[in-house]
């Protein structure tokens, strides 16, 4: 990479400044004691400032490696947990400040590509996402803690802008690389410490995740399992771009699977397997008809189990084998989720239209749910109904319908398997509907941005065909000649991404 002459002078000047600062602090510290913190802090600060200037210049100029590195850092700092606080504790500490810095840094990147972001927001799915975010912010008017609701809504909206900026700037392959690096920075160290400890930070006494379940550098075993599942999907998608690296990527998948098994979280693995199977059926010629049959069968099994009881469907001995603790009641109540869902439905009945307000679940659950410590509904749709009611949930369902339609029209491995994994996870967890940006909410924003990009590129193709043919009838005729999964190779994105790279499964 060619560094401008002026910037080279800044770097040289910075190096000289570091040396002089280190010498000055060394002389000062020799008089007051060599253990003084400024001996290390001040020179280190100069180094950080210099490298931030260098990196900032690379980001602004659109260097591919700089954007990928920021995405990896964004993922890592969002999920890593290095300290323990009581459940429900608020306020700003050093770790929250670190996360806020990277979240608003992502918003800064979005402002650098604001024209492309606005173009993505002007699509149907972009508009639906904007309305949904706006309603979440509006719900602060009747939420128990309006300040927290507004902050949460703003941060989630910033995450959406960040995802759209990344999609506008980077190719799908580059996004996968950034996500994979970020996930590996959490998963691999967590697996490395597993023989010695289950968690880097002390386990909270009120946490429902058993102390023997691996959580590593996250705050809960379910969070670690979700990251493992996302990493497995990313590595599988990267195999299409780097066929010569399949052995390495396969090794990462094996390590991710081992970490997921140590977390003892079952739904994350089920979500990956189910979503992969559904995607395989969709791209398999003549097998798509099995998808509605599978959905119908799953619905029948769920309703049967709910009506007659799991103990009357499966033998108790088999249930004990599947149970994590060996207790039949663990599966009969879905690890206590049936009790949580019953409480949630009663709360939804109190405010069915508008809900209790976005980000109100933690406050209400901690105050009114008396059986054990829990902060959310453990179901995607129930969490949405609880927070934003029927009105807000209709906006959410609209987004999901648009995404599923895009999947049926033009399937894509990364975008659609991620979406299906989120939806399956949403059966027993809140999935991407979180109070603060997390792994699953960030991934969901990326699936929205990629679906919006699909629409934008289709518009560009139609405009190019119209301009090239000089007439509506010929343009429509040529446009019909392209399949839903193909496009002219000359149509590219500002970031250098070809349409086929984003759309082809």
Automatic annotation (TrEMBL):
The keyword Nuclease does not apply. It is found in: Membrane. Residues 485-505 are annotated as: Disordered. Keywords: Membrane, Transmembrane, Transmembrane helix. PANTHER family: LIPOPOLYSACCHARIDE BIOSYNTHESIS PROTEIN PA4999-RELATED, TEICHURONIC ACID BIOSYNTHESIS PROTEIN TUAE. The chain crosses the membrane at residues 12-31, 37-58, 65-82, 124-143, 149-168, 175-201, 221-242, 247-262, 290-310, 380-401, 439-456. InterPro entries: O-antigen_ligase-rel_domated, WaaL-like. Signal peptide: none annotated. This is O-antigen ligase-related domain-containing protein. It comes from Skermanella aerolata. Its main location: membrane. It comes from the Bacteria. The keyword Transferase does not apply. GO terms for cellular component: membrane. It is a multi-pass membrane protein. Residues 252-396 form the O-antigen ligase-related domain.
């Amino acid at each position: 990479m060619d560094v401008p002459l002026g910037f080279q002078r800044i770097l040289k000047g910075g190096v000289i400044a570091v040396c002089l600062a280190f010498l000055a602090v060394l002389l000062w510290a020799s008089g007051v004691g060599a253990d003084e913190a400024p001996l290390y802090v001040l020179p280190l600060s100069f180094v950080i400032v210099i490298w931030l200037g260098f990196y900032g210049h690379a980001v602004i100029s659109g260097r591919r490696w700089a954007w990928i590195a920021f995405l990896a850092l964004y993922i890592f700092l969002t999920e890593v947990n290095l300290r323990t606080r009581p459940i429900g504790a608020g306020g700003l500490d050093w770790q929250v400040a670190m996360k806020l810095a990277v979240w608003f840094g992502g918003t800064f990147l979005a402002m650098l590509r604001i024209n492309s972001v606005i173009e993505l927001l002007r699509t149907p799915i972009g508009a639906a996402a904007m309305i949904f975010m706006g309603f979440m912010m509006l719900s602060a008017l009747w939420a128990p803690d309006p300040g927290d609701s507004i902050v949460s809504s703003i941060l989630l909206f910033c995450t959406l802008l960040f995802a759209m900026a990344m999609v506008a700037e980077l190719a799908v392959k580059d996004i996968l690389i950034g996500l994979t690096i970020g996930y590996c920075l959490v998963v691999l160290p967590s697996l490395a410490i597993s023989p010695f400890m289950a968690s880097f930070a002390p386990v909270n006494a009120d946490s429902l995740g058993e102390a023997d379940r691996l959580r590593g550098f996250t705050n809960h075993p379910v969070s670690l399992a979700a990251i493992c599942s996302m990493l497995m999907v990313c590595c599988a998608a990267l195999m299409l771009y780097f066929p010569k690296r399949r052995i390495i990527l396969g090794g990462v998948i094996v390590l991710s699977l081992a970490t997921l098994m140590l977390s003892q979280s079952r739904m994350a693995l089920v979500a990956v397997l189910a979503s992969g199977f559904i995607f395989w059926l969709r791209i398999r010629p003549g097998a798509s008809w099995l998808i509605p049959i599978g959905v119908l069968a799953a619905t029948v099994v769920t309703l049967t189990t709910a009506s007659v009881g799991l103990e009357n469907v499966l033998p108790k001995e088999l249930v004990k084998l599947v149970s994590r603790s060996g207790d039949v009641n663990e599966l009969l109540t879905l690890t206590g989720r049936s009790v949580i869902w019953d409480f949630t439905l009663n709360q939804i009945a109190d405010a069915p239209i508008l809900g209790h307000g976005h980000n109100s679940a933690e406050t209400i659950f901690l105050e009114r749910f008396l059986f054990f410590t829990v902060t959310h509904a453990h179901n995607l749709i129930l969490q949405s109904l609880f927070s934003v009611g029927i009105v807000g949930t209709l906006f959410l369902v609209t987004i999901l319908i648009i995404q599923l339609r895009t999947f049926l029209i033009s399937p894509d491995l990364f975008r659609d398997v991620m979406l299906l994994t989120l939806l399956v996870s949403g059966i027993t967890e809140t999935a991407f509907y979180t109070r603060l940006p997390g792994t699953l909410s960030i991934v969901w924003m990326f699936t929205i941005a990629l679906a919006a990009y699909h629409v934008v590129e289709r518009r560009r193709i139609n405009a190019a065909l119209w301009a090239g043919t000089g007439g509506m009838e010929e343009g429509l005729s040529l446009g019909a000649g392209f399949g839903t999964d193909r496009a002219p190779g000359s149509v590219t994105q500002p970031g250098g991404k070809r349409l086929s790279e984003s759309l082809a499964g």
